[in-house]
Amino acid sequence: MQNASYLERRGQLETYFDRTAADAWSRLTSDAPVSRIRATVRAGRDEMRGVLLSYLPEDLTGVRLLDAGCGTGALSLEAAARGAEVVASDLSPSLVELARERAKDKPGAERIDFRVGDMLDPALGSFDFVVAMDSLIHYKPADLADILARLGKRAGAGIVFTFAPRTALLAAMHAAGRFFPKSDRAPSIEPISEERLRQLVAATPSLSQWQPGRSRRIVSGFYTSQAMELVPA
Q1: Is pLDDT above 90 for 168?
Q2: H/E run at residue 145
Q3: Fewer Cβ within 10 Å of end Cβ, the chain: N or C?
Q4: In which element (H, E) is residue 197 found?
Q5: What is the pLDDT of residue 174?
Q6: What distance in Å separates the CA atoms of residue 231 and residue 233, rounded to the nearest whole number?
Q7: Number of structural domains, the chain?
Q8: Which of 160, 133, 127 is nearest to 55 (CA)?
Q9: Which of 206, 207, 188 is nearest to 198 (CA)?
């Protein structure tokens, strides 16, 4: 059973991405013109997606993969084009529907099973790899460790995810966000240092079968995120 803080934040994320920000995310993840600030975010996300995919085998034929928090489906499509059988899950019905539309007639699209719901739902099944791009960055450290442990129970070969690294720039952006009207605010991110994250993984008994592997930070204008993989210990 998920704890109260996880469920509260999950509800906030569902509301934000399905209602407040659905149109903005549709535009950001397309080829449509965007502002300079959003262009740096788009470029950063494109680079990060490439990093996460590079942590997976080049040939994904027969590999079962969970795209946890798939958004508009770009990572799912790239993984499926490399042969993966993908379950793409997201809380937002609007984003999942957009992902389905964008996947039509694309290489490998027939290997993607789009689902609306919680990425921690056991009914999604078991996987070789779990990938979570920028979908864990809003959860508190204790919840993050629990999420990784729950995903780890259903992953056989690896967990690839991003976290929000604790930097001065992110702290300043977080503080500035408090001045926006509540109706315009995204759910706050929860920065954590790589050292602290590694300590959390080591201190979580249910993650004892996993250990951190490669890690890489991407900084592109207003986009800052850090990739990490967990591999079998």
Answers
A1: no
A2: helix 141-152
A3: N
A4: helix 194-203
A5: 56
A6: 6
A7: 1
A8: 160
A9: 207
> What is the C-alpha separation between 204 and 225, in angstroms, rounded?
23
Tokens of residue 230, six digits = 């967990």
Helix ranges restricted to H, 29-120: 36-54, 74-81, 93-103
Range of the domain at 91: 4-232
Given a cut of 80, is residue 185 above it in pLDDT? Answer: no
pLDDT(115) > 80:
yes
Angle between helical axes of 74-81 and 93-103 (0-180°, round to 10): 40
CA angle (6 as vertex; 98, 48 as ends), nearest 5: 50
Instruction: Map residue 222 onto helix, strand or coil.
Output: coil
* DSSP-based three-state secondary structure for 71: coil
Cross-strand bridge partners of residue 211: 231
Closest alpha carbon to 31 in 66, 72, 70: 72
List pLDDT tens digits, range 117-167: 999 999 999 999 999 999 999 999 999 999 999 999 999 999 999 999 997
What totals of helices (H) and strands (E) does the chain contain, helices first?
8, 7
* Prediction pTM value: 0.93
The β-bridge partners of 226 are: 163, 217
